[in-house]
Amino acid sequence: MRYQISGKQIDIGAALQTHVQTELGNVVEKYAGRPTDAMVVFSKSGHEHVCEATVHLSTGLTCTAKGKAPEIYGSFDATIEKMDKQLRRYKRRLKDHHKERTTPVELIGASSYILAGSEDADDTAEPDSLQPIIVAEMETKIPSLSVGEAVMQMELAGAPVLVFRNDKKDGVNVVYRRDDGNIGWIDP
């Protein structure tokens, strides 16, 4: 597994890097047999240290966790605890998908845009033009998954919504977390 361990305006020592590699390797190997790479970023927010970890699995699924603590090792321990819980929860499904899916998840390219929000506090005012202002434009990848895999990927990544190409119907679908805590699925 490839590791990318970095700090945002924090110096990361060799001892912390070794600790991250051994602990993260142990947790991921226990649940997912074939991880490809891991990215761990440490930062500081006020008096707390923040650790964000993202692990990419060979099947194309991504697991993300974030932890905070007053000390840097504590923030990593909180992150690894959350990741361990997520992977433990999905262990059976991860192992089942390894058997069903012999090739990695297919990804197709798409454009992603970030639009400027309304700066006016008064929403009743008529805008000058109906064209939105594009703040950022970037390439994104849309995975080709089953609905169950999409829900699992959304949960593992901690995302509120996931756009995916449905394996069975070969169309673009969306799964999202509803306000009542359930999962919604849009199949146009």
TrEMBL record:
<dbReference type="GO" id="GO:0045900">
    <property type="term" value="P:negative regulation of translational elongation"/>
</dbReference>
<keyword id="KW-0810">Translation regulation</keyword>
<dbReference type="InterPro" id="IPR038416">
    <property type="entry name" value="Ribosom_S30AE_C_sf"/>
</dbReference>
<comment type="subunit">
    <text>Interacts with 100S ribosomes.</text>
</comment>
<feature type="domain" description="Sigma 54 modulation/S30EA ribosomal protein C-terminal">
    <location>
        <begin position="131"/>
        <end position="184"/>
    </location>
</feature>
<dbReference type="Pfam" id="PF02482">
    <property type="entry name" value="Ribosomal_S30AE"/>
</dbReference>
<keyword id="KW-0963">Cytoplasm</keyword>
<comment type="similarity">
    <text>Belongs to the HPF/YfiA ribosome-associated protein family. Long HPF subfamily.</text>
</comment>
<dbReference type="InterPro" id="IPR032528">
    <property type="entry name" value="Ribosom_S30AE_C"/>
</dbReference>
<dbReference type="GO" id="GO:0022627">
    <property type="term" value="C:cytosolic small ribosomal subunit"/>
</dbReference>
<comment type="function">
    <text>Required for dimerization of active 70S ribosomes into 100S ribosomes in stationary phase; 100S ribosomes are translationally inactive and sometimes present during exponential growth.</text>
</comment>
<comment type="subunit">
    <text>Associates exclusively with 100S ribosomes, which are dimers of 70S ribosomes.</text>
</comment>
<dbReference type="Pfam" id="PF16321">
    <property type="entry name" value="Ribosom_S30AE_C"/>
</dbReference>
<dbReference type="InterPro" id="IPR034694">
    <property type="entry name" value="HPF_long/plastid"/>
</dbReference>
<dbReference type="InterPro" id="IPR003489">
    <property type="entry name" value="RHF/RaiA"/>
</dbReference>
<dbReference type="InterPro" id="IPR036567">
    <property type="entry name" value="RHF-like"/>
</dbReference>
<dbReference type="GO" id="GO:0043024">
    <property type="term" value="F:ribosomal small subunit binding"/>
</dbReference>
<protein>
    <recommendedName>
        <fullName>Ribosome hibernation promoting factor</fullName>
    </recommendedName>
</protein>
<dbReference type="InterPro" id="IPR050574">
    <property type="entry name" value="HPF/YfiA_ribosome-assoc"/>
</dbReference>
